[in-house]
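Reminder to self: tokens first, then the designed residues, so the page reads top to bottom the way the pipeline ran.
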């Protein structure tokens, strides 16, 4: 399931859709222009994926029952923690959770975290 379909989220959907062995089961975004549409159309693929874009994360997760959620809504861990907690409660016990930055990255220029 893909959560966040901005430029980065859409690019990831395109990559995942092309790879054998992966099945996209759902998508979530808050943009009213994307909600209710087919995910393939939303991200600009040449084919439909048969996956509806939802605006309600809890309902989408309950309906799709994903094994993995790819979260691409923001790069701020503080902003996304509530979003991470929604999938974690719906898929807990399957694969756990991970973030790109488990702790604040060290700044290359300042040497400070």
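Designed residues (113 positions):
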């Amino acid at each position: 399931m893909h959560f966040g379909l901005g430029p980065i989220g859409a690019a990831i959907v395109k990559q995942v859709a092309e790879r054998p062995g992966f099945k996209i089961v759902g998508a979530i975004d808050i943009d009213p222009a994307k909600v209710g549409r087919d995910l393939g159309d939303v991200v600009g693929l040449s084919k439909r994926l048969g996956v509806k874009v939802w605006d309600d994360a809890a309902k989408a997760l309950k309906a799709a029952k994903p094994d993995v959620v790819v979260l691409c809504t923001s790069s701020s861990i503080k902003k996304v923690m509530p979003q991470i907690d929604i999938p974690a409660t719906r898929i807990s016990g399957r694969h756990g959770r991970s973030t790109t930055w488990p702790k604040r990255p060290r700044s290359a220029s300042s040497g400070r975290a």
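The chain has one domain: 2-91.
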